Amino acid sequence: MIAIGSNIGTGLFIGSGAALSRGGPLSLILGFFLIAITLFIMMQSLAEMAVHFPVSGSFTRYATRFVDPGLGFAMGWQYWMCWVSVFAAEATAANILVGYWTQDVPVAVWISVFIVINLTIHCFPVRVFGEVEFFVSTLKVVSVLGFIVVTWVIMAGGGPDGRRHGGEYWVDPGAIANGFQGLASVFVTAAFACGGTEMVGIVSGETVHPRYSIPHPHPHPQKLKLC
Fold first, then answer.
1. Which residues contact 40 (CB under 8 A, 6 or more apart)?
2. At what angle do helices 25-52 and 179-193 cross, to 10 degrees?
3. Quick check: bond before 173 cis, omega within 30?
4. How far apart are CA 194 and CA 3, in angstroms?
5. What confidence tens digit (pLDDT) does each residue in 15-36 have?
6. What distance in Å separates the CA atoms of residue 148 and residue 151, rounded to the nearest whole number?
């Protein structure tokens, strides 16, 4: 659930619409399809290493052990800078979402509230963080399913204007808008939107027995609970 929740975020809720207008529907499908294949291969490899070598530090430690210490060092700092930037992007996205209902409150107020809530959660033990991530991820999954249903309703003419939507976006802006530049921009958006799935590799290093996270005969079942 933490991996799913980290994957679903501003890139999907906010960035997909802009990506569709820049690249067109076919570029959107191709971009997310290529990223999905890449993620599948990466997560299969990460899952195997996390089960056989469960260590704190996850893929940065794997890069150090199986490739080169320099790669692990660079990957660790790059990952840290990535999430620092994403944190700021998430705070800005929170303001954009709230701004749909009201523009009377200054931007700094909503961003500050977002930051304070996140910092407060991280001040508690990791078990609290895991529980919060679980419930927030559940909310995200339910929201995505709700958006899919709403999309079907709007396509069938249930929107405010009553207009039905079919394949007009394949005509305007076109299947692949702006050529290769549009496809590349969609690919970048898809890569950002799908970031966070690797979080499950980090979480596995915090579990007592990652390879027994499902029901499995073990002499000490009380030690098999997740963090």
1. none
2. 40
3. yes
4. 10
5. 788 888 888 889 889 988 998 8
6. 5
Per-residue pLDDT tens digits for 73-127 = 998 899 889 888 888 888 887 888 788 888 888 888 888 888 898 889 889 887 8
pTM: 0.70
Q: Among 92, 86, 91, 114, which Cα is nearest to 192's?
A: 86
Sequence-ordered list of residues with C-beta below 8 angstroms from that of 24, at least 6 positions apart, any chain: 169, 170, 173, 174, 175, 176, 177, 178, 182
* Beta strand residue intervals within the chain, DSSP E: none
Cβ proximity of 59 and 71 under 8 Å: no
How many other C-beta atoms lie within 10 A of the C-beta of residue 168? 9
**How many CA within 13 A on the CB side of residue 116?**
6
Query: What's the CA gap between 23 and 189, in Å, rounded?
Result: 11
Find the helix or strand (DSSP H, E) in which 19 lies.
Answer: helix 15-23
Q: Considering only CA atoms, which of 43, 226, 219 is closest in space to residue 127?
A: 226
